[in-house]
Write a structure and sequence with these properties.
The chain is mainly alpha-helical and 308 residues long. It has a single domain, classed as Farnesyl Diphosphate Synthase (Orthogonal Bundle), CATH 1.10.600. The chain contains 13 helices and no strands.
């Protein structure tokens, strides 16, 4: 589900691995790699934030458990089926060629059926134990990620925006698990995740543009050879992110403490986005990426702990 608009791998050693899955031996580790356990965990965190922000008074822990379990199943299905579809492209990129399917450790057909079972189980579980809107949003995420984002990666750089829509659904999913309607709070949480993903993924796409091109993925505008458009988009969406992150305070969802944290985080992110705009180097794209990685968990933690 966050899809990923998700989070993609960084090379080994000095660069933190975000999407490259471990190639350590063992069936369990390969299954976790197939489900992209780190990305699925991020999906669950954002769904939890949505659930928490929508809750009045104490949390309904049983409903929360059901929401997160069903969401985890669907998120794992999305990542598994994505790797089934993109196995040939993964073989051509250094950062993905060691994944379980291209690495020959998991059979592609087995992965396909495993992903289908996970998808059906997750959607059905949410329908049976939570509510219809939650199940529908989970289904929408799966369809957007696999049916639109994945094939669009070979056709148009607009795929990043579509992937960001899919990746922005989990907090809204958590919200409707409590209140079965898309209130203003749900839309703002959606917007925060959407705007955050654009500079995050554009930074990744610029760092690994040669590998994406080799694999046949069109993640950036072909005419944008110097990265000027990519960097401008990153900066513009960082400004948009700054606006939507202030809304929880004005919607009376979070306290003044959250507003202060959000302002500081936005200033930091804008600084690194401006540096990337000024000089489109791999180093500046990398610092923007890491700034975005730092940004999101701190913002979400502030949102939860300062909830009104």
């Amino acid at each position: 589900m966050m899809n990923r608009l998700s989070i993609e791998a960084i090379q080994p050693s000095i660069e933190v691995q975000i999407e490259r899955e471990a190639s350590s031996p063992g069936w369990i580790s390969d299954c976790l790699a197939l489900a992209k356990a780190r990305l699925t965990t991020l999906v669950l965190i954002t769904a939890f934030v949505g659930f928490c922000m929508a809750s009045r008074g104490g949390l309904d822990w049983f409903r929360l458990f059901n929401t997160l379990l069903g969401t985890a199943l669907v998120a794992a299905a999305s990542q598994t089926l994505n790797q089934v579809i993109e196995v040939e492209a993964d073989r051509q990129m250094d950062r993905t060629k060691d994944r379980p399917i291209p690495g020959g450790r998991i059979n592609r057909t087995h992965a396909l059926w495993g992903g289908v079972v996970l998808a059906v189980a997750g959607i059905s579980y949410l329908l049976a134990t939570v509510n219809i809107p939650t199940s529908c949003l989970a289904t929408a995420t799966l369809v957007l990620y696999l049916g639109l984002y994945t094939p669009m990666k070979r056709r148009t750089p607009f795929c990043i925006k579509v992937g960001a829509v899919a990746g922005a659904i989990p907090p809204a999913l958590g919200w409707v698990a409590v209140r079965p309607s898309m209130d203003a709070g749900a839309w703002d949480l959606f917007a925060i995740l959407f705007f955050w993903q654009i500079p995050h993924f554009l930074a990744i796409a610029w760092m690994y543009r040669e590998q994406y091109t080799k694999a046949g993925f069109i993640m950036l505008r072909p005419e944008d050879r110097d990265g000027r458009v990519t960097a401008f988009e990153s900066f513009a969406y960082s400004i948009g992110l700054g606006v939507v992150t202030l809304m929880p305070f004005f919607l009376h969802l979070a306290s003044l403490l959250y507003l202060a944290v959000a302002l500081i985080l936005n200033a930091i992110l804008l600084l690194f986005a401006a540096r990337f705009l000024a000089a489109r180097t791999r180093a500046n794209a990398r610092t923007l990426f890491f700034a975005s990685v730092f940004y999101l968990p701190v913002l979400l933690a502030a949102l939860v702990f300062s909830k009104n």
